[in-house]
Amino acid sequence: MKKINKIIISLGILLTMAVITAISASAANADVAGAITNVWNGMGPQIKDIVGGVVFPILDVICGVGLFISIAAALISYHKHKEINWVVPACFFGGLLFCLTAPSYIWTVIGI
Questions:
Q1: pLDDT digits (tens, 9 = 90+) for 11-68
Q2: Calpha distance 55→71 (Å, rounded)
Q3: Are 112 and 37 in contact (CB under 8 A)?
Q4: Cα(83)–Cα(78) distance, rounded to whole angstroms?
Q5: pTM listed for this prediction
Q6: 3-state SS of the chain?
Q7: Rounded distance between C-alpha atoms, residue 41 and residue 83, angstroms
């Protein structure tokens, strides 16, 4: 029984290796960079609209809520321990600042 299990496992490993090398061998002749460039050029304006209209506003809301929660937690911590930790609110403020200003320059960086 153990011998049959070892044979089945060995055949499974060999079959997996054969499939993996066959996929990479068939992709050697394909122009992947050209395909990605064509898709990027065709979908670029749609990606820009979706990211600018959906993704960045969602990130703005998440960073804004996180900023207010972290400020509230820092104030509660100040009332309990008489010291303020500004690291978390500063990180949320930096993220919010990035998310608010990114739509104006990110597309020139990416190249759309």
A1: 888 888 887 776 655 555 667 778 788 888 888 888 888 888 899 999 999 999 999 9
A2: 24
A3: no
A4: 5
A5: 0.61
A6: CHHHHHHHHHHHHHHHHHHHHHHHHHCCCCCHHHHHHHHHHHHHHHHHHHHHHHHHHHHHHHHHHHHHHHHHHHHHHHHHHCCCCCHHHHHHHHHHHHHHHHHHHHHHHHCC
A7: 52
Residue 77 makes CB contacts below 8 A (sequence gap 6+) with: 83, 84, 85
By CB atoms closer than 10 A (0-12, 13-18, 19+), residue 38 is exposed
